[in-house]
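Worked example 2:
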Amino acid sequence: MALGNPISLTNNVASRLVSATATAGQTTFTVSGGYRINAISVYRNGVKLSDNEDFTASDGSTVILVNAASLSDTISFEIFDDFRVADAIVSAASSQTVSGNLTVTGDLFGAQIGVQSGGVNIGIAKTLNFIGSGNTFSQTGDTIDISISGGGGGGGLGTAINFSDGTTSPFSYIDRTTSVTENMLLDTTVAGESDSYIVSVIPNININSGVAVTVGAGKTMIIDVLQIGDL
């Protein structure tokens, strides 16, 4: 028994239409490209047929009519292939564009950052960790310039003094006094694996009340290594 009209699709559903011309008494039709079970509509001369009552489609390949077709009947198969959402990320795609912002809740795996030094590419990484105080960051477009204290700016010691445009001047400064505000263990885990000198260019180091600084075995601490305090 033929029922109803062809269904109306939204833009989110991708479908394809396959047609065949029947021979007299034909009941079995092979659908080119196959189909997903329960995701196919069948039409006989433009009239939609009822699943199970007028046809069976249970193997993903063939459709069997309950009532045999007549010579030259047009049997059409509308196959619903998938469900599409605009701007969705397709896992199998080699490249794709998402219009608008992409917000990720949780970790983002696989992303990498190109790392350069002085404009020269030195590799890629997933995490950048800057150790030490006095680091400054300046963003221009999608590039972030990082100035590391004592790392070639100013006079090469202390904290660099920049020109008004942000570029490095030949000067730097060293604080006269600083304080240690938390317990520190200066051993092979933070101050070199072998015997080493632990130095500070700052003349006066104040250890806050209740704070301990422990110098490990094989380590020698030198305060005011430049003897600035004698000037």
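Residues 13-83 form one domain. Residues 98 and 120 are 30 Å apart (CA to CA).
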